[in-house]
């Protein structure tokens, strides 16, 4: 019987000899079997990163036994982590990440994420969709996902009230990840800092050249040959957080501005889904202002 991955260990620490040996020994001592292992040493910082997928060595374990294995696995890793000064986490691989999706008027990324969540290709559980408009409420209803309208107006205190409501939903619904799926409001520094490494944004890759409204139309006027998208973690530095994934599509003079925008919607949805999937599969490790992505 083939061993099935039940837990994933991620870690980072200063590189030195013996890390892989020590981690492997801890897994064996816990009764585990390594199903995959990836590691990377950043030569610029001397930081070592590792992702290890683990299964119980006995594949016939029942669900309670697997839970007990997870606890024993954590206990076995803890002294190793202390010895090497690791930042580390052990995750249950089958657990779907509770993900709140924020959106404004463009529904392409929302529709793609909800479809993938429904068919199981994106390991997320979506307890709610939050929007500053009501236009996409029917789309959320189609997928059976609760919709919260949290408006942001020009009235004093409106943004602060909206963010307070958002933080309340995050706490109330045990949200682990927030995805800005074309949410067109700038979040405050306080909100951006409240969930470090747990908020993902998607935007077109024309920045900083084409800012503001109708960026694809601006790009069309300038004869741009590539359209693309960037998914990154949210930080107080607007659109400058650690990048998770990027992609581009080639365009040409025969395409209209609407064709540009359509191509952009496609690549945005694909890039965001990959970034969210890699995050929820615990493949993304923060490396200062950058990331290490174990694909």
> What about the largest sheet?
8 strands, mixed
Radius of gyration: 21 Å
So what's the overall shape?
globular
Kindly report the oligomeric state of this protein.
single chain
By CATH, the architecture of the largest domain is named 3-Layer(aba) Sandwich
Distance between the termini: 26 Å
CATH class of the largest domain: Alpha Beta
Task: Extract low-pLDDT stretches.
Answer: none
CATH topology of the largest domain: Rossmann fold
The CATH superfamily of the largest domain bears the name Formyl transferase, N-terminal domain
- The helix content is 25-40%
Could you tell me the number of beta strands?
14
Number of domains: 2
Strand content: 25-35%
The sequence of SSEs as H and E is EHEEHEEHEEHEHEHEHEEHEE
Description:
By secondary structure, the protein is α/β, with parallel strands linked by helices. It folds into two domains: 7-92, ACT domain (Alpha-Beta Plaits); 97-293, Formyl transferase, N-terminal domain (Rossmann fold, 3-Layer(aba) Sandwich). It is 35% helix and 28% strand. The chain contains eight helices and 14 strands. The chain has helices at residues 19-29, 63-84, 108-119, 137-142, 158-172, 189-193, 215-221, 257-280, and strands at residues 7-14, 32-42, 47-56, 87-92, 97-103, 124-125, 129-131, 147-149, 177-180, 199-204, 226-233, 243-250, 284-287, 290-293. Helix 3 (108-119) links the parallel strand 5 and strand 6. The longest helix is centred in the C-terminal third of the chain and has 24 residues, at 257-280. It is globular. The mean pLDDT is 94.
